[in-house]
Design a protein that fits this description.
Length: about 450
């Protein structure tokens, strides 16, 4: 039974015989009372008294009959009132149920209308989305086709078309960056100035949107330029996240000045002149196998992650002046072919230069070595200057070779350096740390001995 359905029982119609029975009962009751009173009156001895009593008996009997009839009439009136109230309640319940039903019908109609409207809106949105996706796909396909055209001017238009597509559709930027990187990784024609211009433009598009201060910054961009040919690549001020330049060939002047590196920065590539001044970030920087044929500068760099520069070649002048290395730095088996300076550099996480070769001047003036420092088997082909340097951790120069003058004048060491079998040219003037034992090995070499 529904909650709003009335719980009153169905009304039954009073049968006519029940009313007749009530009247007969009233008459019978009146007759019985009259008979009883008349019998009592007849027992009176005085005729006058008997007549009076009979009159009273008749009056009383009629009164009983009238009272019984009045009671029945009152009962019928009460029943009529009760029936009227029940009918009223029933009508009210029916009206309430009808109103609730109308409300449910109205709510259902509104719900259906709203659902239909939402469905229409979804259909319209889906249609609009599909149209936008189709348009986007067409624009992307057209731009890629332009980039693959034989004409340099058409390819240049393809680069700009991809850039505009990325500007208008942020979700497509990673894909567009990947396409431009793939284009730069493709083999380039030799001595083709038009293709060089197209590649320069693609490079500028990539680096422009990597600059954090640029209003068109693309934070999702990840550069994968492994094996690419890059001409005058300028990433100054860019934010590089997991950028990979392994095996790339950088011609002209390459700049990462003021760049911020996050995650991992792989620079195991071939460079001419390179400027990495003020490079910052917490990225692991990998220079393993890199070659630098021109000048290289890491001045004031703040390298927060580990630096791996093993088996690298620096043929030109190299400078790490006032650079700070917060994590271990390794230059193992690296060759520095010209003047190299680490003046006032700070190595907070340790330094390893085992089997490293300095062909020219090696300057560590006023450098700070806060942890273990390794120069084992290192070859200093020219002058090696450690003046005013601070060695706060162990320093190991075991089997190092000093072909030129070595100076530790003013250097401060918390403990004597390990110099096991290190050698220095006898003809040069040296200034060793206090307490260093030097023995002449032969006419050409001096032998440094641990105490």
């Amino acid at each position: 039974m529904p909650a709003d359905e009335p719980t009153d029982e169905r009304l039954r119609v009073m049968p006519w015989w029940l009313v007749l029975l009530g009247l007969l009962l009233a008459a019978a009751l009146g007759w019985l009372v009259l008979d009883l009173l008349l019998t009592e009156a007849d027992r009176a001895t005085q005729p006058d008294t008997r007549a009076t009593l009979r009159v009273d008996a008749i009056r009383t009997g009629l009164t009983v009959v009238a009272g019984t009839g009045g009671g029945l009439a009152l009962l019928l009136a009460a029943r009529r009132q009760w029936i009227t109230e029940r009918a009223q309640r029933h009508q009210e319940a029916v009206a309430t149920r009808d109103q609730a039903h109308r409300d449910r019908v109205q709510a259902h109609a509104e719900s259906v209308t709203e659902a239909a409207q939402r469905h229409q809106e979804r259909q319209a949105g889906a249609a609009e989305h599909d149209a936008a996706e189709r348009r986007l796909t067409e624009l992307y396909t057209r731009a890629v086709e332009l980039l693959g055209n034989d004409g340099a001017a058409v390819r240049l238009g393809g680069v700009h078309a991809l850039e505009r597509l990325g500007q208008d559709n942020p979700a497509q930027r990673p894909t567009i960056v990947a396409v431009l990187c793939a284009y730069l990784r493709m083999p380039a024609p030799v001595d083709d100035p038009r293709e060089t211009e197209v590649r320069r433009t693609a490079q500028r598009v990539l680096t422009l949107h990597l600059r954090a201060d640029d209003p068109t910054h693309w934070p999702q961009a990840r550069l994968d330029l492994t094996g690419a040919l890059l001409v005058d690549f300028d990433a100054a001020g860019c934010t590089l996240v997991d950028a990979d330049f392994t095996g790339a060939v950088f011609t002209g002047v390459t700049s990462f000045a003021g760049a911020t590196a996050r995650g991992r920065l792989a620079l195991g590539a071939s460079f001419a002149d390179a400027v990495l001044d003020d490079l910052t970030g917490d990225a692991e920087i990998v220079l393993d196998g890199a070659t630098f044929t021109g000048r290289v500068s890491f001045d004031r760099a703040e390298i927060g992650g580990e630096l791996l520069c093993r088996r690298a070649v620096f043929d030109g002048r190299t400078s790490f002046h006032r650079a700070t290395f917060h994590q271990p730095a390794s230059f193992d088996a690296t060759r520095f072919g010209d003047t190299t300076t680490f003046g006032e550099a700070t190595f907070l996480g340790g330094l390893s230069m085992e089997r490293t070769e300095f062909t020219g001047y090696a300057g560590f003036r006023a450098a700070r070595f806060a942890d273990l420092t390794q120069f084992r088997w290192t070859v200093f082909g020219g002058e090696a200057w450690f003046e005013q340097a601070r060695f706060e951790g162990p320093a190991n120069f075991g089997r190092a070779r000093f072909h030129g003058a070595a100076s530790f004048d003013g250097a401060r060491l918390t403990q004597p350096p390990q110099v096991d079998q290190a050698r220095a040219a006898a003809a040069a003037a040296h200034a060793w740390p206090v307490g260093t034992t030097v023995e002449r090995l032969d006419d050409d070499w001096l032998l440094l001995v641990d105490r």
